[in-house]
Amino acid sequence: MNNDDTQILTTLKVLIIGESGVGKSRLLLRFTDNIFDEDKTATIGVDYKVEQLEINDNRVKLIIWDTAGQERFHTLSPAYYRGAQGAILVYDICNRQSFRQLDR
Asked: How many C-beta neighbours within 10 Å does residue 42 have?
C-alpha cells in the first residue's frame, strides 16, 4: 500500500508513565527512532514523539507522551493525562518500589 494513498483514520494519545530512571525515554526512542541511547538524560516536564503505524491496511497515528518521573513534576501529569486513550506503564524489574509506585 502506498503511504500517500492511505489516510490516517485514527489518532491516539498514549502516555508513558513510571518513576524516574526506569527507562521511559529510552523505550520511546527505541520504538520511534530504533535507537538505544545509553546517555539519555532525565526528561524535564514532558516530551512527545509521533509514530505512524499501518494496521489492517489502515494508518494509525500515535502521539506518545513521555512524562517526567521525578516527584517535582508530578503536578504537571494530570493535565497531560486528559484525553489519553492509552498508557504504557514502565518500571524497573530490579526496583520493586518503581512497580509499587505505578499504583498511585
From this structure: 12
CATH of the domain at 19: 3.40.50.300
Nearest residue to 19 via CA among 74, 63, 83:
74
Measure the CA–CA gap between 23 and 99, rounded to whole angstroms. 13
Query: What is the grid cell recorded at 91?
Result: 518500571
Would you call 94 helix, strand, or coil by DSSP? coil
Predicted local confidence at residue 68, as pLDDT: 72
Report the domain count for the chain.
1
Contact 32, 64 (CB under 8 A): yes
Whole-structure pTM value: 0.73
* Residue that has been written with the C-alpha cell 493535565 in this structure: 79
Domain that holds residue 33: 3-103
